[in-house]
Structures are given as C-alpha cells and as structure tokens.
Amino acid sequence: MMKKIIVLLVSLVLVFSLSACSTGYTNISNDELKDMLEDIDSYQFVDVRTSTEFYDEKIPGFIINIDYYILEDDYSLLDRLDKTIPVVIMCNSGNRSVDASKILVDEGFEVYNLKNGIEGWDGNTE
Fold first, then answer.
1. Radius of gyration of the chain (CA)
2. Is the N or the C terminus of the chain less surrounded, counting Cβ atoms within 10 Å?
3. DSSP letter (8 states) at residue 123
4. H/E stretch holding 68
5. How many CA within 13 A on the CB side of residue 37?
6. Domain count across the chain
C-alpha cells in the first residue's frame, strides 16, 4: 500500500512539474517560419521591435509592428489583432518576442515565436 502511495505522489509531482514548464507558445525555426510565410493569410506576422528597428530592416511578411516596450504597459495595442488567427512573433534576438509571446498567450492568442529573431534569420530581409 505504501509503495502505491509513493508512486502516486511521485507521479503527481512529475505531472505538476511538466505542466509548469509549458510556455503556452511554440518556438519555431527559420525553416518553419519560411513554411508559414508561404501561407501568409493563415497567420498574423508581428514584429515587436521598435519602429526604428522595424523600418530599418524587416522580414518580408511581417507587416504589423507592435513595439514591445510600449506593449508591456499598454495591452490595448493588441486590439488590432484577431484572436482567431495565430500570431507569429519576432524581435531582434528572440528575447523581447519571448516576453511578448507570454503576454499574447495570457491574452488568449495562439502564438509562434521565431527563436533567434531577425539576427538568426537566414532568409531575405527588406
């Protein structure tokens, strides 16, 4: 009986530990992003860098710019997005987009995050 209780407790701890690791968003690679960009109407492509960074260089297809530094204090910027369409998000190196992804997930969006941002991007830019 004691062995069953221990196994049950260990199982519960494992389940809770694994669920705590869930981010709620999916990190994607360059190849996965390239595939998504082929189906541009099925996603909302959001760049969370500053407007200066956005207009300096961007990945074609990322037409929405929501500056993370403004978003972190003003979630109303998300009102222009459709919660029924998945969001693909990117920044310069992947740090701001992780934080923005967490916000979007908490607000009810399905989110895909480009792991290494535009710095890690091996495709075309404009």
1. 18
2. N
3. S
4. helix 68-71
5. 18
6. 1
